[in-house]
Amino acid sequence: MIVYILKRILLMIPTLFGVMVITFTITQFVPGGPVEKMIGEIEGISGGSGEVRAGSTNLYRGNSGLDDEKITRLKKLYGFDQPPVTRFVKMMRSYLVFDFGTSYYYHQSVAELVVSRMPVSMSLGLWGFLIVYGVCVPLGIKKAVSDGSRFDIISSSVILVGYAIPGFVLGVLLIVLFGGGSFWSIFPLRGLVSDNWHELSLGMKVLDYLWHMVLPITATAIGSLAVMTMLTKNSFLEEIRKQYVLTARAKGLSENQVLYKHVFRNGIIPIITGFPGYFVASFFTGSLLIETIFSLNGMGLLAYESVVNRDYPVVLGTLYFFTLIGLISRLLSDLSYVLVDPRISFEGLDE
């Protein structure tokens, strides 16, 4: 087991390095980089895009209007006065100690910027995670036990309709219905908490936070309910139809004993093994559309803004960090197989 873990950790290094090389290379060929955007802002051209929109023409004029000395100083400011290989080596050295540099657009540390956006993504992800697992696992088991019944058919229809509705569409619908759009003004629409949150008592702070989370979490989690519910149902249904269940029933065991003593520990394996990866990802992922609709400054909106504004330290720094987190979560998911199913062993892979 230890040898297998060490091999997986060693494989993470070239994977992470390859991702960074490809992304860094792509950024070198994307037009309108930070230097060009700064030149455009200095010249007041097209709001800083480095383009001129006069009449019917659309001509790139990134280097016009500034002398070579100023352009050279701008390149040095952003580090573009050095060869790409040199910049990449320096970047990776800093990333090894989790120094992601300073944002070009926000003018603050990338690490501080990510930390400031994390509460939103963690709130959406963690509550969505708890709701999905808390609802889908018991619902999926109930559907497997009552397969083909009226409850199974009706519940399947409801969750599939919810799955068919995109999260951002549901978010808009919830705002129209419950956010004061056209009907009832019940839930707030902006931020994680109210403006007077610091003046509230502890109990009111908790209620205020939960009240703000109702609509965005509903819009975020509703699409995942169908997938996890059907996965749970199919996993348990497959186990219920196996021969050992018939043998257990023939021995006189009750349905609850068969279900929770024999079927449960086998049927829950596909659900539990995805738990580590989903749990870790719930802390760091963001949803651009949900965050935009409900005016939440999370990781999804940060990722979009950093790409649009060519904020390479944020783009590359967050990519490095989240790729590393993703690789670790995949390893944890594989190891969870051994913990929940003693029949699985990686000993043969150590040789």
Q: Taking strands numbered 1, 2, ... along the chain, how are they ordered across the largest sheet?
A: 1-2
Count of DSSP-assigned helices: 15
Amino-to-carboxy terminus distance: 11 Å
Structural class category: mainly alpha
Largest sheet: 2 strands, antiparallel
Secondary-structure element order, N to C: HHEEHHHHHHHHHHHHH
Amount of helix: 55-70%
Number of strands: 2
Mean pLDDT: 80
Please provide a written account of the structure:
- The chain is mainly α and 351 residues long.
- It has 15 helices and two strands.
- The protein has helices at residues 2-29, 34-43, 68-77, 84-96, 110-145, 150-164, 167-178, 202-240, 243-250, 255-267, 269-273, 275-284, 288-293, 299-308, 312-340, and strands at residues 51-54, 57-60.
- α14 (299-308) packs antiparallel against α15 (312-340).
- It is globular.
- Mean pLDDT is 80; it is low at 45-64.
Task: List its salient traits.
single chain, mainly alpha, two-stranded antiparallel sheet, about 350 residues
Write the layout of secondary structure elements.
Elements: H1 2-29, H2 34-43, E1 51-54, E2 57-60, H3 68-77, H4 84-96, H5 110-145, H6 150-164, H7 167-178, H8 202-240, H9 243-250, H10 255-267, H11 269-273, H12 275-284, H13 288-293, H14 299-308, H15 312-340
Antiparallel strand pairs: 1-2
Helix pairs in contact: 1-15, 5-8, 5-12, 6-8, 7-8, 8-10, 12-15, 14-15
